Amino acid sequence: MLNIKEGLQIVGLGHYTPKHVVTNDDLAKLVDTNDEWITTRTGIKRRHFMEEGETNRSLAKRAAEMAIADAGISVDEIGCLILATVHPDTMTPSVACMLQKELGIPEYTPCFDINAACSGFMYGVSIARGMLLQSDKPYALVIGSETLSKVMDMTDRSTCILFGDGAGAAIVKLSDDHAYYKVLGSRGNDQCLTIPNSGDKRYVSMNGGDVFKFAVSTVPRTVEELIEMSGHAAEEIDWYVCHQANKRIIENVAKRIGVSLDRFYMNLEEYGNTSSASIPIALSEMNQKGLLKEGMKIIAVGFGGGLTWGGAYLEF
Ligand code: UT7
Q: Residues near ligand 1 with C-beta < 6 Å?
């Protein structure tokens, strides 16, 4: 029997970041930079890099197991697994397929990777909703998992200070009692942020200034669109969770929306930019800290390479 419910609820959250912590001072030994520049220009103090033996799949698995346990569900109840990443372990098989086997999710479950760069998790949640509308299973597992340290040019000070590794996961279900509004967009652009998969330089390359300008115009607009769709006022939203790329971008959004910066959850100081993993890691941390209470209204917005952007209004 198909579901006809309209909204979406997050019922479980999990995250995992590698134990190996790289500080700004550590990076200052590799490139011409310093803690003061990185802190004032980005807000980042530390990031976590994978250790020997860790893979995109192993990070994602830890996050997924935590989300499944948090939701208190059985893997037999999962109707799809969507994993967002810009750097899968292999182009095929997908990380999602291999994770299906490791987690024991039954066959006849669609499992696949998507790439919408740093907006990937928000795209994944929207796709999951569409999949659940066609599923006889109640839950979807949506993961953002990134191993960016593997595609970092550690001689390029303009990028190597920004990114980190990690994974975040959510279990979502359809719900008539939890409103869900989304905004997704993309604009073909191969100049701002790229990771080639051929040639000698398979590293992240970014025009930071252009991405910054894109972010400070697109993110506030997306937030405003979601506020309008929700029918609430900006100050009625309990939490804003933006992609954790740069503290100055988040400050800019808060100012534009006219909401106190306290409502914007930030953990980029600890993890740097973990691309598609940053929003689910933030949500899971908030959940762990008891910051997410039943009935709370949340707006989450991602943005990044593509260029892409994706946001949602969610009720906890
Ligand atoms: O998840 C994908 C989304 N990505 C983003 O959101 C990134 C958005 N962009 C940004 O966050 C910022 O543009 C950056 C943090 C990447 C750069 O900050 P900025 O204020 O735009 O600096 P800039 O690129 O304009 O560089 C200013 C100066 C330059 O030196 P000159 O030309 O003025 O002499 C850079 O060479 O800072 C220099 N610089 C650095 N200095 C010390 C660039 N990187 C560094 C560094 N340490 N790590």
A: 33, 37-38, 41-42, 118, 157-158, 161, 193, 208-209, 211-212, 215, 245-246, 249, 273, 275, 304
Please write the tens of the pLDDT for every residue from 65-88.
Answer: 999 999 999 999 999 999 999 999
Which residue's structure tokens are 């698995």?
Answer: 61
- CA 118 to ligand 1 centroid distance, Å: 18
H-run or E-run covering 41: helix 35-42
- Residue type for 260, please? S
Q: Is position 80 annotated as part of the catalytic site?
A: no
243 counts as catalytic: yes
- Mean local confidence (pLDDT), 12-40: 98
8 Å CB contact between 240 and 262:
no
CA-to-CA dists, residue 253 to 213, 216, 224, 258, angstroms: 12, 7, 10, 8
**Tens of pLDDT, residues 165-216:** 999 999 999 999 999 999 999 999 999 999 998 888 899 999 999 999 999 9
Percent of the chain with pLDDT over 70: 98
Q: Is 160 a catalytic residue?
A: no
pLDDT in tens, 144-165: 999 999 999 999 999 999 999 9
Homologous superfamily (CATH) of 7-175 is: Thiolase/Chalcone synthase (3.40.47.10)
Q: Please tell me if the domain spanning 7-175 has the same topology as the one spanning 180-315.
A: yes
Tell me whether the omega of the peptide bond preceding residue 307 falls within 30 degrees of 0, making it cis: yes
Query: What pLDDT digit, counting tens, does each position of 44-58 carry?
Result: 999 999 999 999 999
- C-alpha 31 to ligand 1 mean position (Å): 14
Mean residue pLDDT of the chain comes to 96
When computed from its CA atoms, the radius of gyration of the chain, rounded to whole angstroms, is 18
Please tell me the CATH superfamily of domain 180-315, with its number: Thiolase/Chalcone synthase (3.40.47.10)
Ligand 1 centroid distance, CA of 192 (Å): 13
Q: Where are the domains of the chain?
A: 7-175, 180-315
